[in-house]
Amino acid sequence: MKSPRFFAPEAAPGRLVLLSPDEAHHLRDVLRIGEGGEVVLLNGRGEAYRARVEGISRREVLVRVEGLEERESEPRFFLEILIPLLKGGRTEFLVEKATELGAGRILPFVSRYTVRTPSPRTHERLKARAIQALKQCGRLRLPEVEPPEELPRVLQKVRAERRCVAYEKGGLPLRKAFSSLPRDLALASGPEGGFSEEEIGLFQEAGFLPVSLGPYILRAETATLFLLSVWRYHSLT
C-alpha cells in the first residue's frame, strides 16, 4: 500500500517539516495517522521524500524527512494556460484538470463577458485545488497558479513565444496550429460569453494567433479542456 502524500514545499533531506494547517488536519483528523506513521512529502519542485511523523498536537504536525522517494525531471514542453473565471466552481475544475494534464503555469483572467468576479480568497482556493490534484495524480511539479486579473494585465504576464487563442468566429485550424509543438506555448479560451472583437484585437497585439476549435459551439470549460487535452496528446508523442 502506498504511503499517503502531503504537500510540503520546504521538504528536503533530513529536515523536520511543520505541515500547513490544511495538511496537518488531513493527516491527523481525516486519515488519523499517528506518530511514527510513514508518509510521502511533495515539495512541488519535482521531488517526493519518504518521511515519518515525529510529533502530533492539536496545533501542529511535525514530520521528519528520511530520504528521496522519487524525482521528476524537467518537462520537455511547458504550457501556459489562460483560463476564464467561470461561475459554479468550474474554474477550480479547470485548475484541477490543468494540473493533471501537465500545464506549467495557470493564468486565470477576468474579461468583458466574464460572469464571476474574484473574491479575496479566489486565488487561495485555486492554489489549493492545484495542490489537491498534484497529490492525487502522481505528478511532482506543482504548476504556477497566478492570481486572477483583468485580461490586459494577464496578457502582459505571458512568457511563451508561441501563443494561440481559441476564437469562435474562426481562425487557423487547430491541427495546423499543432503541426509542430514548440518548447513553450501559451493557450487561451474565453468565458461563457466568449471574447469581444476588441479583446481578440488585444490578443493579436500580444502575439496570439486565433485558432478554431471546429464548427460546434463549446461550453467555456469544454473549450479549455479541449485545448489542454490536445496539447497533452502532442507533448507525449
Account of the protein in words:
It is a single chain. This protein is an alpha/beta fold. It folds into two domains: 5-71, Hypothetical PUA domain-like, domain 1 (Ribosomal Protein L25, Chain P); 78-235, Alpha/beta knot (3-Layer(aba) Sandwich). Helices cover 31% and strands 27% of the residues. It has seven helices and 13 strands. The strands form two sheets. Strands 6, 7, 8, 9, 10, 11, 12 and 13 form an eight-stranded parallel sheet that branches. Strands 1-3-4-5-2 form a five-stranded mixed sheet. Helix 2 links the parallel strand 6 and strand 7 (105-110). The protein starts with a strand and ends with a helix. The mean pLDDT is 94.
Protein topology:
Blueprint: E1 5-7, E2 16-18, H1 21-30, E3 38-42, E4 47-56, E5 61-71, E6 78-84, H2 90-100, E7 105-110, H3 122-137, E8 144-145, E9 149-150, H4 151-157, E10 162-166, E11 172-173, H5 174-177, E12 184-188, H6 197-205, E13 209-212, H7 220-235
Parallel strand pairs: 1-3, 6-7, 6-12, 7-8, 7-9, 10-12, 10-13, 11-13
Antiparallel strand pairs: 2-5, 3-4, 4-5
